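In practice, a research group might receive sequence data for several interacting partners and want a quick structural hypothesis before committing to experiments. The following worked case mirrors that situation: the sequences arrive first, and a predicted assembly follows.
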Amino acid sequence: MRRAATPLLIVAALALGGCAIEPWVAPYERANLSDPIMSFSRDPVSASYMNHVHEVREGARGAGSAGGGGCGCN
Amino acid sequence: MAATRSGQRYGLLAALLLAGGAGAAVLPEDRADLLYHSYDGGGVEVSGPSLLVRKSLGDSVSVYGNHYVDTVSSASIDVLTTASPYADERTEQGAGVDYLRDGTTLSLAYTNSDESDYKADTVSFDISQDMFGDLTTVTLGYSQGNDKIGKSNDPAFAATATRQHYRVGLSQVISKNMLLALNLETITDQGFLNNPYRSVRYLDPLSALGYSYEPEIYPATHTSDAVALRARYYLPYRAAVYGEYRRYGDTWGIDANTWEIGYLHPWRENWLLEFRLRQYSQEAADFYSDLFPRQQAQNFLARDKELSTFSSRSLGVTVSYDPGLHWNFIERTAFTLSLDHIQFNYEDFRDLTKAAAPGSEPLYEFTANVLQLYVSLWY
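A structural hypothesis for the assembly, expressed as tokens:
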């Protein structure tokens, strides 16, 4: 029981602690990050196609960039 | 089962992290892309169009639709050695909706893929949350796919497969010039998982060639785990470099590593250039062999080159031009040409079109060229 609760407590502490974190990159400092050249999938139609090209010919699959989150910088 | 537990674990972790706070997420841009794609390599030609249209409805909903076609003409090494060249067409239709509320984005998507002997339906759900002053975005998602497999030369053949994807993503602002993203995905498949047309070869002293063929037999379950780390860095003169590494492993014994690096360079007012290099390598599945010692040598049999030990290296370049056109409701346009050249080198898959004693044929290798030409409109 204690072993199961430990990771939950750590995660809960991190999550609650996040409310108090001072952003180390202020919103007005995110101009570079919001430039389209910094997007992980700038052109979704192309990213999806190349993902298909690779998955058809390789044994590996998954964890593609299409499923990633944004940068929270807009 | 192990993958299900793993997926639940990621889900629990992400769900707890989601309690952390709220941010200012935004919906994807309103845009339409019309793409022509072409793949040419190893005797296989695949080309067709793809149309992706996305539009927001009010401030909190964005919808999209996608139509994609693969027109296939195949005289691949597998087809040349065990069957006849063929032509086929695959059509994929997809639609989705994103709903944004505070820092949370909920996404629902449906995709249908249809070809003469294979039909697949997939439903996906993702939830994304910005937190820690919008420096962190956590995404978790689930997809379920149901496939129906047929066989063109055997109308009585009918099989099914189900696929489940569990994924979690974390993207992080590291500095005012650097982004990092971590993605994990576990996929479990169950059902008929091999290609019904493919065969394995085994030593047969009674055959003139010295070998004969029998159908492939794959396990009915397959579970894989992939983890990818990506980074992007903004250079002082408005350019960007990026790198990514993906590690992959599955219950069939395949281990794979993927590396990619790239450089984006805006040029003058209207041009964007991208150069990239990608390296992929994998170890073969446990039940793969180029040449089995006898008929039915083991429970599971594969001679699918995608399950063999091989590596590939690709070099790509993308040129995008924004002519500065905008009229009526169109705010921006861009024309993009993208080319990738890929070299495949197989380490235990032999080229049977070259006559030699069984097992001593030269190793197979081929190159492929991938072309994309697309126009994008923002509105």
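Before designing any experiment, note the following. Residues 1-25+102-182 of chain B form one domain. The longest helix of chain B spans residues 2-18.
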